[in-house]
Amino acid sequence: MAKSRSKPGGIGAKGSACARFFHPGDQWPNTHRTHRVSDALVVGKGIHRVQKKEQLCYECRISNIDDNTIFHIVCRNFKVEDAAATPFDDERPLEAVVNVPNAHEIDESINNELRVSESDVVPNFRAGGGGSLAEEIAELRQQGIEVDDDNEPAPENASPPAAASMFTVGTWVTPTVCPRKANAATNNNTRGSWRNFAWTKIKEMDELALFRMAMPEEWVVDVVLPATNTIIEGDKLSLQDFYCFVGCHFFMACFEGISDRRLWWSSKPITIDEGAPFRLNNYMSLRRFNAITSALRFTIKEPPPFKDPFFDVREMIDAYNTHMLIEYIPALLEYRYSSIHEVDAYTNQWLHDLGLAGVGATRHHISSNHEIPSCCCSSLFRITSIS
């Protein structure tokens, strides 16, 4: 059932409320929670402190309590049943204000309508004249008056013709060949190759040499070291220190479950039950490692005027991609399986995330020797499926 709304309050209004909402409430020591006060007379309105905060309240007298006590009650807890002749100012009903436009506003309204209207404004000329536009133009010309009945602007006011577009609009087509397979040189490179090192030479390299071959070392020398050395504490960062720092990260990444990095520099004996499996003190001190970590910077460019979440590493990404483009010729990757039932949902999702597609070797599929190029990181992954 909908709750009836309270009427506007004012001096002389009467209403009712639960006794527990009236202050002071010592008049009903035993029944204040259930007793309801009726015919309370509103004698004023003001701010009173209720429940430890200042609130707008009605000031009332209660008919059956005649000891000159002025009670106050929060307005929202009081229901006005008999409205006063004159409501309080803040409770007067809003009156609709009728805006009668003057002559100037009427003229402005007509002008605005003409501005946005696409119709001809010539009828203003012949209003009340009776005849058609053609008749009026003929009459004026008979009087020797030149009349321009063209709606186009005058030559001196005409806009210059639009310049021809500088961009050539192409057409959308569905490719029928793989652009990388169409390149014979790339298609023949089934293994991928480094431009400056043969695979026989790469086979003899150690881990550090392989890392340096794939790392844009020139960018490290020109960007990382100068940017880091401007704020690092202690000795300046050298290229040897940088590779030692990266090597510490590689070693720590080989072991799971060691949440506290300080354990790699712990002075406690190495045990099989807890802590790190070896120590890094012989390669770099913990203080030096923390100093490089807090000061390491990957860019020397000024930040853009907008928020770029990849600003700190964007220069590194560009340097790596440029380095790989110059040094490495990526290969086409392929993935083959003999039966579609041998590849579970997890493997399919993993291949999809890498930008690969599974290729079937059964007669139900298009080809048993189909090569699929990877659309992401083709220079980093080589996949071999063994059934």
What's the helix and strand layout?
Elements: E1 14-18, E2 36-50, E3 53-61, E4 71-74, E5 79-82, H1 103-116, H2 123-126, H3 133-142, H4 179-182, H5 184-188, E6 193-194, H6 199-203, H7 207-214, H8 217-229, H9 239-253, H10 286-295, H11 311-327, E7 328-329, E8 336-337, H12 345-354, E9 359-360
Parallel strand pairs: 8-9
Antiparallel strand pairs: 1-2, 1-5, 2-3, 3-4, 6-7
Would you summarize the structure shown here?
The chain is α+β, with helices and mostly antiparallel strands and 387 residues long. The chain has twelve helices and nine strands.
Textual characterization of the structure:
By secondary structure, this protein is of the alpha+beta class. Among the domains are: 14-91, no CATH class; 232-296, no CATH class. 30% of the residues lie in helices and 12% in strands. It contains twelve helices and nine strands. The strands form three sheets. The protein has a five-stranded antiparallel beta sheet, with no helix packed on it. A two-stranded antiparallel sheet has the order 6-7. The chain has a two-stranded parallel ribbon with strand order 8-9. A hairpin with a 2-residue loop joins β2 and β3 (53-61). The protein is flat and about 105 Å long. The two termini are 72 Å apart. The relative contact order is 0.07. Mean pLDDT is 75; it is low at 123-129, 337-344 and 354-387.
